[in-house]
Structures are given as C-alpha cells and as structure tokens.
Amino acid sequence: MAPHNEHQSQGITGSPVLPVPKDVMDELSSAQATDLKGRPFALPVDSEHKAKTLRLYSFASPHMLTFHLSWISFMTCFFSTFAPPPLMPVIRDNLNFTKVDISNAAVASVSGSIISRLLMGTICDLAGPRYGCAILIMVTAPAVFCMPLVNSVTGFIMVRFFISFALATFVSCQFWMSSMFNSKIVGLANGTAAGWGNVGGGVTQLVMPLVFSLIRHQFGAEEFTAWRLAFFLPGVMHVVMGLLVLTLGQDLPDGNYAALKRSGDKVSDTFDKVFWHGVTNYRTWIFTITYGYCLGVELTVDNIIAEYFYDRFDVNLSTAGIIASTFGFMNIFARPLGGIVSDLTARRFGMRGRLWVLWIIQSLGGVFCVVLGLTHQLTSSIVVMLIFSIFVQAACGATFGVIPFISRRSLGIISGLIGAGGNVGSILTQVLFFSSSKYSSETGIMLMGVMTLACTSVLFLVYFPQWGGMLFPPNSKTTEEDYYGDEWSEEERSAGLANASYKFAANSRVSGSWMIRVSEEEFPLCSGFVDGA
Amino acid sequence: MACCHKLLAVTVLFAALFQATEVEGGVRFSTLERNLVVNAQIQSQNVSSGVAKVGVDSLAVQWNLNSSLEIEVDSEYASVKVKLCFAPKSQIDRGWRKTDDDLQRDNTCPKEIATKLYRSEGNFVVWRIPKNVPGGEYFVRAYVLDTQAVELAYGQNTDDAKTTNLITIIPITGRLPSIDIAGIVLSLFSVVSLCSFLLAETLLDEKIRFQNDLLNHIGVIGPRALAFAFTN
What we know:
The complex is a heterodimer.
Chain A: H1 22-30, H2 63-81, H3 88-94, H4 99-127, H5 129-139, H6 141-146, H7 153-163, H8 169-180, H9 186-198, H10 200-218, H11 223-230, H12 232-248, H13 271-279, H14 282-292, H15 295-313, H16 317-329, H17 331-374, H18 378-402, H19 411-433, H20 441-456, E1 463-464, E2 468-469, H21 480-485, H22 490-494, H23 499-511
Antiparallel strand pairs in A: 1-2
Helix pairs in contact in A: 2-8, 2-9, 2-10, 2-12, 4-5, 4-7, 4-8, 4-19, 5-8, 5-12, 8-9, 9-17, 10-11, 10-16, 14-19, 15-16, 15-18, 15-19, 16-18, 17-18, 17-20
Chain B: H1 2-18, E1 33-34, E2 36-42, E3 50-53, E4 58-65, E5 79-86, E6 111-117, E7 123-128, E8 136-145, E9 151-156, E10 167-170, H2 177-218, H3 223-231
C-alpha cells in the first residue's frame, strides 16, 4: 500500500513521518512555506525554511523568537558569571580576601567555560541547541544559588568556577542562529547575538550594585547579607530563561530534533580527521593567541574594572558599577561594527585587507589599554576606557571575519579552540598581572596593553597561499580550491567527500565576505561554529 | 600647514586630557604630632586588647591631651575624630587598605567611631561595633581637626609600630537560615523542572513514535491510493 522507500524529508525538517508519495511532496514544497502549525512564516525563508532577513524588532516564531531567546540566554550567563566583580569591595571584606584570592576567583571564572565550550558543540549536534542551551542554563542555576551560601575563599572560587560553565551558551547561541538563518545573513545574526550577549558583562556591573543598594536601603539588610540576597536575581534569571527556552524554543524552523528524521545524505566526517586538520593548521594557533588578547582582555577587564575605579578614584560602589558597565555596553555596536569593517575592507582588499584591519584595530586596543594604565584622572580614564573598549570589542568581531576562511573541514573545532584561546588569554593575563601585590592595578592594565601589542604582532605570520598575508602577496599558482581541497586526502576527494569544501572555495573567491557563510547542506557537521564570543 | 595646525591642536588636546593632574594633597601623617593619649577597651571585658564581636560588644574609648606637654598646643584644636583602623596584619596583600602618608589617600582607617568637640580631658565614648565591620585586627586612632577640618595632631591606643593593644574583631557571616533555604529550594526547582520537562518530552516522543510505528504497520491509505480507489 504505502511505498516505504519513498520517505521524503528535505534536509532536516519536521515533515511528518508518514510515508507520502514523492510527487505529492513536490507539490507541497512548491506551495508557500508554512510552519508547523500551517501558518506562513513571518519572515521570507529559503528552501530549508531558514530566514533570509533579520528583523530585530520582531518576535515572530520561530526565527526571531529564537534570535531573542538565544541572545538573552547568553546575556544572562554573562550576567551571572560577572556578577561578583562589581560587588567585590563588599565581598572581599565579608570573606576576608587577599588580592591573590580575588585573582584566583577571577581566573576560575573564565576557566570553566573552556571545558564546557568544547563539549557544547557535540551536545548541540546530538540533542539540539534548544536542549543544550536550556540544560546548561538550568544546571548552572544551582551554582548561582550557591553564591549566597559561600563562607570561605575556597567556596567562592569553586562557585565562580561552576558558574562559568554557563558561558558555553555562546556555542548553542551560534549553533541555533546557524540553524535558523540563511548563509547570507547568518554572519550578521551571529555577530549581533554574540555582541548583545557580551553586553551582559556590562549590564551586571550596573544592575548588581543597584540591586545591592536597593536591598540595603529599602529592606534595611546588613551589607554582608545584602550582597548575598542580590545574587538571587541572576539565579532566577537563569531559571526563567531556561523555562522560556524549553517552552518557546524550537531547534529548527520546522520543529524539534526529536520530531525529525535525519536524512541519509548528510556528509558525516570522523572526529579524529577533523581534529587533526584543525590542530595542524598553524593559523589556528596564531588566532588562538590573538583572540586571547581581544576576548581575553575583555573578560579580564569585566573582572577588574569596577574594583579598579572604586579603589583608585574613590567613587562609591554604584558609581564604579555604572562606569564599569559602559565598557560592556559598547558591545552593542562595537562587535558587529568590527565584523562590518572587516567585511567592507575585504570587498576592496580581500583577505589581506581583513588581516591588516584586524591588526590595526587590535593594536590600537593595546595602545589605549597602555594609556588607560597611565591615566591618573577620573574623567580622562573613563574616556580612554570607552575608546579602548570599542577597539577591543571590534577586534573580536573582526577576528571572526577571518576565522571561517581558515578551514572548511574543521571549522567547528577551530572556532572552539580559538574561543577557548580567548579564555586562556584572560587566565594568563590575570595570573601574570593581577594576582599578586607586585603590580598595582594600573600597572597591570598598562602591562596588559603591552602584552596585547606584542601578541597581536603574530598576525604578520599568517599567510594564505591563495590570498597572501599582511606582508606578502598571494602565490598566483594556488587557488582557493587547492587550499580547501588539501584538507582532504586523494581518496576522500575522489569519493566526492570534499564537494562541500569546493563549493565554499568558489564562494570565498567571489567575495571573501564576512556575510557569506556555508549553509548546513554544504557543511552539516559543524555548521554552528561560524562566529563566536 | 593646515594639517600641522590640526595635529598640534589634537596633540595639545590629548596632552591636556591625559596630564596627570595633581590632586590637592592632604595633610601628611608624618607631620602630625602625637599629642593625644588614647585608650580603648572592650567594654564588657575591660581589656585593652582581645576579641570583640560585632553587634554584641562595644568599645569604650577615652582620650585626652598629653598632660606632659609644656607648650600650649591646642589653641587651634576644634574637634576630634575617633576612628577604627586596620593593624598591619590585616593590611597584608590587601592594597585597598594600604597606609599612605597623604591622609587624603590613606585607607588605614575605614570606620568612624565618633566626632566630638575638642576638650583637653574628660572625653569618653562607648561605641557598639556595627555589623558591617569586616573581621581583622584593629587599633583606635583619634585625629584632632581645626575649624577647617584639617588634621593637626593625632593619638592612638597602640605604639608607633602598631603592635600593642590590638583588638581582634569577629564579623558576621551575613548568612541567614532563610537565605540558605531559599537557595536550596530554588536550586531544586531548577533541576527538577528541567528533568520533568525532559522526561515529559521523551515520553511524548516515544508515544508519537509508537503511534507512527503502528500506522506504518497497518499501512496508511495515502491520497493517491484514495484517489485511485474512488476512480476505480
């Protein structure tokens, strides 16, 4: 009766499992694209039902709702990870910290996410980004609720470590964007979501001191109790966002993973080959170092800046928080701006332009960091910090203008490694310059700027044979297909496994643009990793 | 030429912006005379050094002008500010409590005990240690101020090296049983609601799979087969 061998599913969709004859399916697909409930999509979509535009003011299900759920969850995790720093002047007195203790806790707060970010990609692949995000955010909620209970240095460090696992929501955020948005717009969607998520680091500096103040004055709580109560805010935010993601979220435009039938024509790659090609590409490691000094610097500053203003300029807690929050708020436009500048430069100067722009922006970030450490006056400090923040965050955006072109086969692993490199850079900086009483905070900031300048200069070593490097022109004999095809062996190429890479190579030649990304059908294994925080 | 002028203007602007402006320095501590004699005791225990608990114990502080001074020094003395100050042990590795000779930048004395009008003797104050005092070792210092609130002299209950008569203060933890309970309850809620959701969706998925398998087994009459059936 029913032809079992004619099951049709267009890529990954939520289409019914019931067997339907092929010509009937074709008829259905040519009709107007509809969502699960049979209503037409609010946004124009492509054949995979991925949105072709980004409408920031809309909350239409599933695309824009996903966008907003995604970036708000990520922002919540940044909020809770960097919630202790603005209240540090109170916490350090309550728990009797020394400078080393504070620094150890700050290092712990960026360490946990290294592990979780590397694992999250696999979880998203297997269980879907909706579950990945919701599970992570609700499992780290108890860690946030443990913060009010902390009584010792060790406890504080452990809690900050476990809360930092939540930063892996960036991976689910990016993965989810790539599932919902067409390759032409996914870069902008990813960059905006990543930037707005990072703003959580700024919002927390503003909100936590205000909440603390409110609890102290309105409810008359003691200082050492008020800061504990303030931590219920990020905890509740975790739970609320987790529930919203579970109830309102959807893995793909056509449904959730559980309801899907995976099509058999997805190219599956082996982990060890992908890993090998990722780690043996020297550019991966160069960008790991440089990203450590743009995202790493951003994370370090999120940890130290409120205390810096409180101690150095004698402002009160709330004022220090407001000043510190402006650093994070620059992310709203600075990070997407970095990507856009990279993109515009690439139109005229290709990859060489992207590399130069990245080097210039990040080096200027280093310069203004040095100046910040040398500035003695409050107003000038704030101005310098704002300029510094724009350059640092734009550098993060510009870095991800180059990363998608390093490799096609191993894009996921490379993005994960470079993202982890950002955290490692932060750990290194905090251990070297902010952990002991050897350097004052202002000297530490100045030295951080010097180290940024030094580490950014390794960009001169990047060379793409088909496009050139900063100092050397391209090798005219090598084409994009050669570069991306070289990641596959002869047998693999003849078996047709490298076709997705060749497709990308052709696209990359056409524009080398930040906006053009590989869609899932071209590289389904790690399609989530195209931009990062 | 125009670009040179612009460059000069920008350079001057930047120089002005980043110039280290000398903040009006305060009085230097090293210039102050130790003209007051200060005594502090933990009131309930009647000892000059020991362990005191915040919110429970009080400090009884008394001060008077050093009677052995020969010249008249207190003609400009207007008021006295008594402060609780960190002993060196509580300042180690804590740069935010650093002692600085410039009194405007000095962070040694975080808490004010009392401000009184100056009298050469008969000064006494009892101060209940508030709950926001951090734990640590402390001593008591009194600054004498003139009518412009500029420090003129001081006295402290410990020696110059700040090693004697130190008071150890035990702070509150800030934890309350209600906070502990709320934290545990909300954590459990988070984990339990997550697990319930996952369980519910897994069961639903299994139910749908079961139904689909059933339908596959029986065989579904597709639209084409129906059309065939109707036309034939």
